[in-house]
Amino acid sequence: MSRSDARADGQFDARFHAQFEELLLWRRDVRHFLSDAVDPLLLVRLLDLARLAPSVGFSQPARFVLVESPARRAAMRENFLRSNQAALADYIGATAALYAQLKLAGLNEAPIHLAVFCDEDTATGRGLGRRTMPEMLRYSVVAAVQNLWLALRMHGVGLGWVSILDPRQVVKDLDVPPTWALVAYCCIGYPKEVHDVPELERSGWERRKVASSAALIMR
Amino acid sequence: MSRSDARADGQFDARFHAQFEELLLWRRDVRHFLSDAVDPLLLVRLLDLARLAPSVGFSQPARFVLVESPARRAAMRENFLRSNQAALADYIGATAALYAQLKLAGLNEAPIHLAVFCDEDTATGRGLGRRTMPEMLRYSVVAAVQNLWLALRMHGVGLGWVSILDPRQVVKDLDVPPTWALVAYCCIGYPKEVHDVPELERSGWERRKVASSAALIMR
Q1: How far is A105 from chain B (nearest CA, A)?
Q2: Of A9, A150, A165, Cβ closest to residue B194
Q3: Which of A31, A166, B116, B190 has its CA 20 to 30 A from that of A4?
């Protein structure tokens, strides 16, 4: 069953069920961070949990880059500002700009910047399961980020996923191999406030859709 | 802090930390299922947990389709067989075919087939955060699938993600809007055996890479 006879057999009790549901409820996109440091050993340990996520053909394509140099962080902010400027030209304008500013606040405040890439050129997994759906490789990286998000939140640490970026420019600015694709640029730190309602919902940007059995389509 | 004063403030204890790590370890891609039924109410409840995943701009693009008709299930198997045949023409051959057959077993045995799509045409979220990285919409659906995977496993139910499929053909065969993109085709049921080591690792297809602080790249 398990390579370790000492380990339990993967049964979980009702108390855990309830707490896990709480964790999913409290997992929020964080935009405002305290400057308090996050223990680097904690981060390394939680990245190991992230790596337990499924990957297509067991390809394990996630690559984690900690961005600490002030010059490189400035390049990320520049990229964000340019990308956001371009976005404003063709969409909803003032309100969108406001919410985008919140992400900029995260970029300025978060003690940890973590870029997560997909190694599109990896031989690991030998291509299994990704011929008709090559995007499975990047999806495997997303699963790792979601594991990380939950694991961080469990320890009270918040994550904000910044996607208003030119991903190819990030590859250049962080000097990683050109065969790596940016999947997530993550701001990580202790949140200024803790919420179980998404900021975009609280602010009226968008409402949660009613989820019910009616939303399950039958074929 | 919370809309419900009764709810805890999102703190998690050491016992939960350890159990959550166990859950991530035990979350496995399942290929062999028992025919035992899964309670439909449990599935509906866990889909609600899946929907708690983050989504770009709070766009909530995941669409869940339960595939029950024998004719449609047969179409999925046909799609799989065609896609797998095409794959064999250009890769490692016999061994890959063997592992692909395991997925076919899952398609034949799993009591629940769940197709998960991304509604690429949704107005929800108003485009926020997906102009430079439009793939964020599909990534949001992957996060929901990963939530679902963990929630199912917590209840002892297994999921197998089938990606040896022509995704556009699935859209046609399941008669969903052409603006929906297939993200995951999931076989769901109670597993025949429970493992904490990936089947592809046990069988020698691929090894787990050593994850350590050395794997964290600094910039």
Answers
A1: 15
A2: A9
A3: B190
